[in-house]
Write a structure and sequence with these properties.
Shape: globular
Strand content: 25-35%
Largest sheet: 6 strands, mixed
């Protein structure tokens, strides 16, 4: 049997780590690099390029080089975030048959899971070369605010890559495991995680061999890519304000401009002011090429990026409010993600919390290290006591009501395991059956949330409007699995559904996309066990009245409008 690793599958960069006899360590490639760009390049005539070589291809073939695909994983094509990304990339984003967001590169179609799978394979190869051992399994991290669909899509990516996914854990939780490894402490900490494409903030309590998530909040479309875009737009606007020339808005030019913005941002990590010349980036009125010279100071960068920084603090306000704490009551702030290396981020975070963030851990590596610690504990490789993780629901769970509203059953940041229920009653005379539609998300509008599943409860007693009552109970176990039970009063008729995470891909599609290669014996054993496990009931959804009224708020469950 091979080893188990931790993989931080990032939007911009990915990292792999392992826990061995010498403790946790990040694994580096042959050139000694710890960060691997989450970039996949096509069109070379051979297998896809991944990592640094793929990123080098981006400036010459942006239409064949896919970056930031994590922003699409588990998303639907009509999501606002998907539509926003479409205008920032050279490859095509289109809608799949299931309404999911897919990628087209020079005529060939891919799923975001396939792109992520190529990155996972690349990370496994680096780990195997660095350890001279076979990698059988991994703990993979995701943003804390990822919904079930995005989490399952990440699992699908691992399956396509022929990699056994031991567990999906939240990035802030992994970071706290790395921060607390080998320490005896009792603290309330905040993990401020600003990566390449997503932002999370989690409030956690750390005790002896215990990590308890108190509250979490996030923005799945705020990250380093957005800071680069803001700086790039500043360069464009500042140059064009002189009226000498214009910077074209074709994708090839946009890629070069964004690369320049990233270079300036990195330069400001060590310098107060940086300058850069971009040859032939602009054109004059006659179409002649012009060089673009730009200067960026930390003060100017702070002004340009402040709207984005303020967006992160709105999320911090939300998480602290949910935790019932003020910024002054936090014992420590752990920075995670490459963007937190940007000095203006550190300064702003210190000002917001009133104290300097903890700076003795590497923000690029801490998530992968925590995942590696968890992987070792799950496979019993580590002799250290296993850390108990007590998590919360990242988003609200509820049912659809009349007017396409959501009635919350389990609010977000509820500690799990938990059981909650509410009573509903019918709105039509002689109504004998009802459809229960289960959603995840924090919006009151059902269309802005994610449908997790639905089922029909029949056997309601006939009678006048409001006579029949239905109790809808939600149970979430320690593993985050959701069970929904609906019970009709009077008759005792009951229907139950286990809400299993699903992505836009069917099991058959995942199997068809699986990369060629020999599966590990561990994976085969798990598949054999899963084959014998009872499956969640698949309940037909006929056209039935599903009008219910919630006793307290008098909200009606609306007639079904889900496309079958």
């Amino acid at each position: 049997m091979g080893i188990s690793v931790g993989i931080d599958l990032g939007t911009s960069n990915s990292v792999v780590a392992v826990l061995d006899a010498d403790g946790p360590r990040v694994l580096r490639d042959a050139e000694g690099r710890n960060l691997q760009p989450s970039v996949v390049g096509f069109g070379s005539g051979g297998p896809p390029l991944v990592g640094h070589v793929a990123k080098e291809q981006m400036s010459v073939a942006p239409d064949a080089t896919v970056a930031s695909a994590k922003r699409l994983i588990g998303r639907r094509f009509n999501d606002p975030e998907t539509q926003r990304l479409r205008g920032q990339v050279g490859w095509t984003v289109f809608g799949g048959e299931a309404g999911d967001a897919r990628i087209r590169v020079r005529g060939d179609a891919y799923t975001a899971q396939e792109i992520a799978a190529h990155v996972l394979v690349h990370m496994v190869r680096i780990a195997e070369q660095a350890t001279n051992d076979t990698v059988d399994s991994a703990v993979i991290t995701v943003p804390a605010y990822f919904n079930d669909q995005q989490r399952q899509a990440t699992r699908d990516a691992a399956e396509i890559a022929n990699l056994q996914c031991l567990r999906i854990i939240n990035e802030p939780t992994a970071a706290s495991m790395a921060y607390g490894y080998g320490k005896q402490q009792n603290q309330r900490i905040v993990v401020y995680d600003l990566g390449g494409g997503t932002f999370d903030v989690s409030v956690l309590h750390m005790g002896d061999d215990l990590i308890e998530v108190i509250a979490t909040a996030g923005d799945t479309f705020l990250g380093g890519d957005d800071f680069d875009h803001a700086i790039a737009e500043h360069i464009r606007n500042a140059y064009e304000s002189d009226g000498v020339g214009t910077i074209p808005r074709d994708h090839e030019t946009n890629v070069k401009l964004k690369a320049a913005a990233e270079s300036l941002k990195r330069g400001l990590a060590t310098e107060q002011q940086v300058s850069l010349r971009m040859p032939n980036l602009a054109i004059d009125a006659e179409g002649n090429p012009l060089d673009v010279d730009t200067v960026l100071s930390r003060t100017l960068a702070r002004n340009v990026c402040m709207p984005l920084i303020q967006r992160s603090f709105v999320v911090c306000d939300n998480a602290l409010s949910q935790a019932g704490l003020s910024a002054a009551q936090v014992d420590g702030i752990v920075l995670v993600g490459g963007m937190t290396r940007f000095p203006i981020i550190k300064e702003a975070v210190a000002q917001y919390f009133g104290e300097d963030p903890i700076d003795d851990i590497n923000p690029d590596e801490v998530v992968a290290v925590g995942a590696a610690i968890q992987a070792a504990q799950l496979t019993r490789i580590s002799s250290d006591p296993s850390t108990v993780l007590l998590d919360v629901t990242p988003q609200t769970l509820g049912v659809r009501t009349v007017g396409d509203f959501i009635e919350a059953i389990i609010p977000r940041n509820t500690p799990i395991p938990t059981t909650e229920s509410k009573i509903f009653h019918t709105i039509r005379d002689n109504q004998t059956e009802v459809r229960i539609a289960v959603y995840q998300g924090d919006s009151k509008d059902a269309k802005a949330n994610h449908l997790l599943g639905e089922f029909v409860l029949d056997g309601l007693p006939e009678g006048p409007r409001g006579h029949a009552k239905v109790k809808v109970a939600f149970n979430i176990d320690a593993d985050g699995l959701v069970h929904v039970i609906a019970t009709a009063s009077g008759t005792g008729s009951t229907k139950e559904m286990r809400v299993e995470a699903s992505s836009n891909l069917s099991r058959g599609e995942v199997e068809s996309l699986r990369f060629e290669g020999v599966r590990s014996s561990v994976s085969d054993q798990i598949d054999a066990k899963n084959a014998d496990r009872p499956k969640a009931p698949v309940i037909a959804a006929p056209a039935v009245d599903d009008d219910l009224v919630f006793d307290d708020d008098d909200l009606l469950l609306e007639d079904d409008d889900v496309t079958e």
